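Shift notes (night). Ran DNA repair protein RAD51 homolog 3 while the centrifuge was going.
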Amino acid sequence: VRQECHGDAARTAGGSGVTRKCTALDLLEEEQSQGFIITFCSALDNILGGGVQLTKITEICGAPGVGKTQLCMQLAVDVQIPECFGGVAGEAVFIDTEGSFMVDRVVDIAAACVQHCHLIAEAQQEEDHGKALETFSLENILSHIYYFRCRDYTELLAQVYLLPEFLSEHSKVRLVVIDGIAFPFRHDFEDLSLRTRLLNGLAQQLIIIANDHKSAVILTNQMTTRIGQNQSTLVPALGESWGHAATVRLILHWDNSQSPKPRDAKEGFKATNQCGSGQAADPELQGLNLVKTV
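Came back to this:
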């Protein structure tokens, strides 16, 4: 049962340990007052009820290459959309455990977002839009994405437990991304009970961060194969207990089992006995067909 309404109010009052009581109506009003991180993708925003909600944990699951990191980088830009465009005008913390953060891609996403906001401003011709766009630039967006690289579970745990202090110094942060929550915990763990305890503690810390700092927490998770009696299915990693950590679980998959992998194309090359320099070519290469990926 939730016994507090406003962040860490229950931990104040001189350390008396008395929690602040509130009604269900208070909780409803507080819930409805929380903002959303819009994505400018109407289908995704509608599925999420308006966007990624602040104070909640959202888990993004999917097979490798399906676009989990791309979506996280997109959200790290979207959280900075000015309020007059429907955003929250915040900042982002990006914790990378797999080394998949691509700054070049973030530049492309940020530039496209700025351009989209300029198009909206030109269409609506509102004064506050022009003022907001004066500071909503590519350089400003990149300077407000705080990147941390964690190479194992000890670094990840340390970073998460030190995060409240960082967020207190950067009060505009409204998004915390952990790209690859499962990666540090899927190797070198013989004691599964220890892993479960560490994950449960991590989940509780993330809930505290989301509530106390009014931030959205985004986690990406890998998929694993569950073997049944008659078939095998892909399910999110880290087990059933971890599945209760997130408020929202978003599972990405390929449409019709098709992925945007590079297509293979074949082209025929006729090998002659003369090269461009006039020297004789290797006789064994005559009639060779080469295959290239485009």
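DSSP finds nine helices and twelve strands in the chain. The first strand starts at residue 36 and ends at 37.
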